[in-house]
Structure formats: structure tokens, C-alpha cells
Amino acid sequence: MTFPDHTVEKIGGTSMSRVNELLGTLFIGERTGAALYHRIFVVSAFGGITNKLLEHKKSGTPGVYARFANGDDDHGWLDALTEVGRAMREAHGDILEHPGDRSMADEFVRERIEGARSCLFDLQRLCSYGHFRLSDHMLVIRELLSGLGESHSAFVTTLLLQRAGVNARFIDLSGWRDETEHDLSERIAAGLRDVDLSSEMPIVTGYAQCTEGLMREFDRGYSEVTFATIAAWTGAKEAIIHKEFHLSSADPNLVGADAVRKLGHTNYDVADQLSNLGMEAIHPKAAKTLRQADVALRVTNAFDPGDPGTLIDDQPTDTPSVEIVTGLKVVALELFEQDMVGVKGYDAAILEALKRHNVWIVSKTSNANTITHYVQASLKVVRRVARDLEEIYPSAKVSARTLSLVSPIGRDLSGLRVLSRGLAALEDAGIEVIAAHQTPRSVDVQFVLGAKEMETGIAALHRALIESEVTHLPRKAA
Fold first, then answer.
1. 297 has which bridge partners?
2. With respect to CATH, is domain 7-244 assigned 3.40.50.300?
3. What is the per-residue pLDDT across 376-402, written as a single tens digit (0 to 9) for each?
4. Overall pTM > 0.90
5. Of 12, 79, 334, 447, which has the maximum CB count within 10 A?
């Protein structure tokens, strides 16, 4: 199967909640006829829906999945599922104007919600017998529930576009009531098999049911993995992510809207560093898929259609510069052992404990008798890790405390003296630097600050390294 010159484009959940506004910008705008097509859109669930289906991404408030997994009775998850149906109807009620479209969307929600309800009931009955364990099926349930959100948003968007005269086509990769098994590439191939991109606009679910189990490895980063795989598999000329903001040099809420600069152009090295600090331009696995397929990524503001956004590719920069300053709250897990010098095994034991508790490592430093891991996890979880290590090394001193890690990042920081200038800027701002790290690769510098100093630290570094006139230095001749 071959595809014409085309793009694969993804719309995030916050932007999807304003999808009717995107008709006049992203989907249609000034386009007519054939210019409307040669584009595949991969959509996330409407804002807040996945939180209600699974659990709130930030607060941890339980949704249907969490209540089903932990509830002692049926009422918790049943009420939560009913609430999801109500929220879905409210979401598309704000988007669809034609009564017929609303009726079709209502019926779609009813069929999917009732189907999920029946499935969960049947699973509970099955697991009431001793030979079956509910825990063996929870990942499948998580995938089933998650797919409801993307299927709903893709179906509603298709109705909206069709009503506007666009030949949109709903492509459901969620595997709903599909008795066949496919890996991810086969699922995509089956969904797009007879699509004519010259005259159809596919609206594709961000969740794809497959034998690999996207949730198992990527959890809620699955939609970007689906998006990247479609772009690579179809040989897209460009993969585009539409957000509700531009990819900028810092959070404008911290440094001021007038002070930030749109990146414009960067590379996958920078994207990886941003992912490591929780500021994902794209999921690292998705970035790897695009990189290996030689597909460039563009990040745009969905509500600023005249702006080309930021291009992310593999090209180096001609001019070293700090491109972005970002930060993350971390927990510092420190193991001190006087007898560590020259003894192997300490690092492996720490890594095994962190892996066992599913803790994300952001950065790490060590010296003769101390190993410190800066991790993204709750202090409660890290203390469990610390207790495990104290049992293994009873004479060691293990501590954990909440800090922040602030990092200037760029494709090439060589010659810019980012470490020394950053230290000076933080000192001038009255901020104590607990630790500082710089690697020979010259793509980032990390400053470890107090937990409450992150925002002021980002602002101080942005002023010194990006807003100042000495931002760019010419590359030295080889």
C-alpha cells in the first residue's frame, strides 16, 4: 500500500475540547477541494475524559479503572462510569450543533458505556470463581476503558467535519468488539487499508489495541506512540503535533509572555532532554520512531494557524545557544557508605530497588562514598526504596528529600559558559545552589535547588541565558 505526499497530525486533549474552533483554522481554514486532504489526524480524548476513565493524571483522584481495581463493591465504579457517560455527552453537546449529530453521538456513547459496563460485570462474575484472578486482567481493562475516550472524540470530530462538508472518515483502532489480534503495524494497516487520502480525511483514535499492549509500556503516552507509528508506517513527509501553545523558551507564566521566545527549530536531542524533565514535546519512544524513520516533527499552536511553529529534526545548530529553561520537582535519594570506595555492587542494588518500585530516574551523581539519584516520585515511594536499601546495607546512611532540578537546554551549549553564568545568575537572585551538573555532550546543564526555588530559578536563568544580549556565540572553526 502506498500513500501520496501527506502529513500525520495529532491533536491533544485540551485542544480537542475546542475542536469546533479548529474548523476555521486547522481542519478547513482557507482550504478548499483537494487542499483539504492528504492529512491524517490522530486525536486524543476530550480534556478530562481520560482522567475520569482511569485516574486524574496530577491529583490521582480515582476514575473508573482505579475504583474498579480497589473498590469493595460495585457502586463506586458504576457511578464513575455513569459520570463518564454524562461528561462525554456534555462534551459533544458543546461541540455539535445539529440535533441529528447529537443524537448519533449520544447513541455512540450509550453503546460504548453499556458495553464497558457489561464487560466489567462479566469479568467480576468470572473472577468470583477461584480459578480466575481479577489482577490478571486489569491491564486489559485499563486499555478497554482508555480506548473509550479516543473513540468518542474521533467519532464526534468526524460528525463535525462531515456536517461542515469535509469527507471525514472515522478510523477506530481501539479494537472494539474485534475478535482478531493484531500487532500495532497490522492494526494500523487494517484501519487505513482502503483509505483514499486524496479525497478522505481520516480521523484516527489515539489509542490502538494491539498485541504489544500500549498501556503496558507507555501508559498514558500511548497516543503519541500511535501517532508516530502511523507517520513512520505511511512515510509521512512530516509529523505535526498541535498544542494550545507554542513550544517556547520557558513557561510564559513564570518569565512573562513578552520575555519568552518561540523555539522555531530544534532537534531530537533537545526533545529527549525535555522529556526527561517531564516537559514532553513528544514521548521519547515516539520521538525514536520518527527519528529512525527520518520523519521530521513539527510542534505548532493549533489556534495560531499562520505560524509554522517549531521544527524538530536531526540537524545540528550553526550557532550555540541556550534554547529553553525548564525544571522539575524531584526527590534526592542519597546513599552514603564509608566503605563504598573500591567496592562494586552498590549502584546495581540501588537501580534494582528503584526499578522494583517503578521510580523514574531523572539524574544521578556519585563520588567515592556517596551515590545520589534525583528521581520523579512521591516522597512516600522513595522512602520505601530507602527502607529496602537500609536492609541491604545496614551500615549505610540513606536519606530522601524533596528538591527541584532546573536545566538550561540547547542543541549546542559549547563555549557559552552556561554553568558559570548560571551559578552567577542564581547567586544574584539569592538562590542557593545545592548541586550543579554538566556533561561533555553540551546539551544541558542541571542545577539542583531547593523545592521552593524552582520557579524563581527558572526565571533567573532565563533572564541571564536567553533574555540577555550574550545569548549566542559563533561556533568555533574546526
1. 239, 312
2. no
3. 999 999 999 999 999 999 999 999 999
4. no
5. 447
